[in-house]
Amino acid sequence: MPINTDRILTTHVGSLPRTDRLREANARRQAGDLSEADFQQILTEEVHAIVAQQVELGIDIVNDGEYGHAMTNTVDYGAWWTYSFARTGGLELTEDNPAFEVVRSTPGDLRYTSFADRRDRAAFLSAYDEVVDVDLKVVDAFPAATSAISYIGQEDVASDVRNLTGALKGSGAHSGFIAALSPGSAARVGNKHYATDRDFLFAWADVLKQEYKAITDAGLTLQIDDPSIAEGWDQINPEPSVSDYLAFIQDSVDALNYALEDIPTELTRFHLCWGSWHGPHTTDLEFKHIAKTMLSIDAQGYTFEAANVRHAHEWKVWENLELPEGKYIVPGVVSHSTNVVEHPELVAQRIEQFASVVGKENVVASTDCGLGGRIHPEIAVAKLASLSQGAALASQRLF
C-alpha cells in the first residue's frame, strides 16, 4: 500500500532543538546533581511537549526529537552518534585512542582519515579555522573497544519508546519513529579487541539489533542513521576511485542488513547524508554513485539530503533510477545548513519534482538532516512550518 493516499505526508530526520530545561537536566544528571527519577520526569514532559509542537506545526510522522540522545550544548553535531557510548559495554576511554587516527590510504586498501584531515576541510582550511561553526566538534574524547562489546542500553531505549508511545496517544500524529545508529557509523570508535574491521562491524550489528528490535516491537518506525555511507568519501585521503569506495563500504552495508534481518522492513527507514556540519561540501560524493547502494539496504523508506545547494539538483537522478515496488522516498525539501527559511512555494515545487519521477504516492516531505544543534530553535520551528505549508500546496495540486 502506498504511504500517501490523499496527500503528501511530512516528517523530519530526527534531531530537534533541545529546550534549556532539558539541556540543563542532562548536565545536572551527568554531574550527579539530579536524581534519575527526576530526570526521567523532565524527559517525559519534554518529549510530550515536542510531539505536540510537531503536530501543531503540521508534521505527520513525528518523533521524540531525539531527546533521549543527550545534549548539554546548544550546538552539537554529534549527539546522534555519541549517545551510543553510554549504551554499549566493552568501551573505555584510553589515553592512546585519538578519534579517527590519520591513516594513509591507497587504491583498493582504503582507511578513514580524521575529521581534521578530510578533503573538504583541506580545500578551505582558512574558512574552517576562522569560523568555528563549520568545524565538527563532537566530544573531547572517544572510547575504544577494549573487550567484547555488548548492549547495555535496555533502560534507555525503553525510556525512548515509553515516552514517544505515550506522547503519540491522542496526539493526532500519523505515526512515530525513533532514530538509532548504524553499525558502520558506530564502528568509527577505536578497536583494541577485534581481529578485523569486519569482525568489529558485525559485533556492532549484534549490539545494535537489540535497540532496533525494542523500537519496532513497540510498533514504532526505526530510522537508521548512517552518514558513514556517503560522508566517508570525504574522509579518505587521497580521493579513491568510486568503485574502490563502493567496495570499501560494502562491509558496512552487509553488517546493517545482517542487523535488520529480524526487523520488519515496513517499520524501517534509512537516512543517508553527507555530514551535518556547515561547510562548503565540495568533496561530497555525487548521489548518482551511491543511490543503488542505498537502495540495497533492507528498508522501506529512504531519507536523503535534497534541499541544500550541493544536492538540490540531484532529484533528476531518479529519472534513471527505479524505485523498487513497495518502497518510498523521504527527500529533504528544507535544509539544516542555512538560516534562510525556504518559501512554502519552493518546498511545494521540490516535492512535485520528486513526485514527477517516483509518483506522488511514494514521496514523504522531510528535512535534509536533523535541525537540533544545527540551527536556532526559532528558525527550526519556522522551517518545519514552511515544510508542512509547502506539502499542503503540493497536495492541492497533486491529489
TrEMBL record:
Membrane-crossing segments per the record: none
Q: Record's Gene3D superfamilies? A: 3.20.20.210
- Signal peptide bounds: none
The residues covered by the Cobalamin-independent methionine synthase MetE C-terminal/archaeal domain are 9-67, 202-384
**Source organism's superkingdom?**
Bacteria
**Record PANTHER family:** METHIONINE SYNTHASE (PTHR43844:SF1)
The protein here is known as: Cobalamin-independent methionine synthase II family protein
